[in-house]
Amino acid sequence: MSSLEARDLRVGYGGPDVVAGLDLVIRPEQITAIVGANGCGKSTLLRALARLITPTGGSVLLDGQEIRTLSSKAVAKRLGLLPQSPTAPENLTVEDLVARGRYPHQGLFRQWSPTDEQAVEEALAATATTDLRARPLDELSGGQRQRAWIAMALAQQTELLLLDEPTTYLDLAHQIDVLDLLDGLVAERGRTVVMVLHDINQACRYADQLVAVRDGRVHAAGAPGEIVDDRFIGDVFGLEARVVEDPVTGTPLCLPIAQRRSTRCAS
Amino acid sequence: MSQRITVRAGGVSLRFHARSAAVTTALFVAMLAGLVASVAVGEFAIPPADVVNTLVGAGDQATNFVVLDLRLPRALTGLLVGAALGVAGAIFQDVTRNPLASPDVVGIASGGSLAAVALIVFTEVEAVPLAALAGSLTAGALLYVLAWRGGVQGFRLVLVGIGVAAFANAGISYVLTRGRIFEVETAYVWLVGSLNGRSWDQVWPLAVGVGVLVPVILALSRRVAVLGLGDDVARSLGVGVERSRLLLLGAAVLLTGLAVSAAGMVSFVAFVAPHIARRLTRSTSMLAAAGCGAVLVLSADLIGRTLSPPTEIPVGILTSIIAAPYFLLLLRRARA
Q: Boundaries of each ABC transporter domain copy (chain A) (predicted)?
């Protein structure tokens, strides 16, 4: 079981630190959702956890080892990342995309072992993209394309899967589709999912652990039901809101109070 | 259409796209046919059968001379120049993820030509091929350093490259205005790209360069495929992005430099050969790009030699004339 942890993590791009002394333990075989206002450092945090940027201080530990000291292939066998709106070359088919997820397991003379083949088939099946395998990516709908990318990350067969806003640009049905898929991966296959999510209500519904980032630090972390209330929304998003119980799932549901409309309706 | 062929033996397993393998094979057959045709056709026509006989060492003295000393080195130079440019262009386009990138667009070939032309016009030194190689490498290094900003980003590389090309081209124009007319004539043939009078002296450095670099590039081509998914995805799949990019671009610059030093600035091949290869294979294939480049240069030279003998049209003019319409046609068909 792979573990991931940030200790006093600091990341900056030359200016003031965007992630400023952050501690976080990712719980295995659970969904962790990272939420926060724009520019709070949540995407930067995810990139640092995935070893895409070098921290200016502190450390990221993968299975207890400093991630910077591990080889890129060793990391790639344990941790996969799906960036926000990734791009693929023209005419690339779903199957070829997914097959590329096998890269860290392959070598110059070991390009396509039976294990690779099986991993790709499983990833296609898990994301319901088997029927789309021969289609070029650019011909697919947004939801199908996102499923294909997730299949690529699945074929990598890492225990840890990090996703940066996997539901962006998808319509509501496809958003739920993708989130259900990730939920199934955790529940049925014991993967650990960490994702940045925009929608606090979806985060509350799907996350076992919610991590709220504010000014580059963890403002609060825990089960959504325990930490999300009116004040939490005010602190994290700078928004006046009422938090009620979600009638469908029982998780917190955030109802923003817009200044103009709400006063008009209330009167 | 997207069938794959898997070869497994012991711990070794290889995989190809069926279409890509078929197209590449066809291109290599066409390339060999082009080679034989280039040797056969000319003022002193040699039947293709005799060409093959001579190549395997069973020709008479007269054919031996024409084939082995005159026509074969020229044809081989053309083949290797085309292959080198095709691969170099494919690398630039794939690594920068920009279909407009190619060694001629980003100033590598212009850098080589500037050095060559300056040597022709300003000195009596007989080292034009060497100068061309050095000029190309310098332009490549300059491009990389100028485009570097904590890493080299594809789009930035292309923009900086257009600047490098403009600078080198301005230099070339300046040198040409300073030269005497017969020097400028020599320089101009170089700028257009020509295979006229190429001998084994041009073949060997090219053959060694292509022979060493192409296998290295093929070994790196799995990384090229992953780099195509973007830097973040490539990194998270375990590819050392900056190092791979430097290695690949370095190899592409060397190939371009060798090609320019052997035949001058044969335009359009590096840009268009990878595009044609991609359309035909519907995937990325370095070998297909090499085949396309070689077939393009060989056929351009053959046409240039036979269109209005005894005048020869330099190969660089014909590569553009042949490739441009074919390229436009392919694009049109792809849209429909």
A: 4-240
Size of interface A-B (CB pairs under 8 A): 92
Please report the ipTM that was assigned to this predicted complex. 0.90
Higher pLDDT, A110 or B277: B277
d(CA B283, CA B288): 10
Number of residues assigned to chain B: 336
Do B238 and A76 count as a contact with CB atoms less than 8 A apart?
yes
The pLDDT of residue A184 is: 92
The pLDDT score that the predictor gives to residue A15 is 82
Q: What is the pLDDT of residues B45-62, one digit of tens each?
A: 888 888 888 888 878 888
In a domain, A50, yes or no: yes
Q: With 0-12 CB in 10 A as exposed, 13-18 as middle and 19+ as buried, what is B7?
A: exposed
Residue B121's identity, in one-letter code, is: V
A84: containing domain? 4-232
Q: Please check whether residue A256 lies inside any domain of the structure.
A: no
Nearest to B304 by CA among B318, B293, B290, B294: B318
| Structure confidence at residue B1 (pLDDT) | 42
A102 exposed, middle or buried (CB, 10 Å; 0-12, 13-18, 19+)?
buried
Q: What is the mean pLDDT of each run of 10 residues along chain A (267 residues)?
A: 90 87 93 93 93 92 93 93 89 92 89 89 92 92 91 94 90 90 92 94 96 93 94 92 93 87 55
Q: How many domains does chain A have?
A: 1
Task: Say which CATH number the domain at A27 has.
Answer: 3.40.50.300
Contact A82 B13 (CB under 8 A): no
Residue A207 covered by a domain: yes
Q: Determine the Cα–Cα distance for residues B76 and B202; give it in Å rounded to an integer.
A: 9
Task: Kindly state whether residue A58 falls inside one of the protein's structural domains.
Answer: yes
On the question of pLDDT at B178 being above 50, the answer is: yes
| b/e map B251-273, b = 16+ CB within 10 Å | bbbbbbbbbbbbbbbbbbbbbbb
**Residue B334 pLDDT class (50, 70, 90 cuts):** low
**Closest chain B C-alpha to A93 CA, distance in angstroms:** 8
Interface test with B, best of A44, A52, A97, A165 (most B CBs within 10 A): A52
Domains in chain B: boundaries: 4-335
A40-60 in b/e form (b: 16+ CB < 10 A) is: bbbbbbbbbbbbbbebbebbb
- Domain B4-335: give its CATH code: 1.10.3470.10
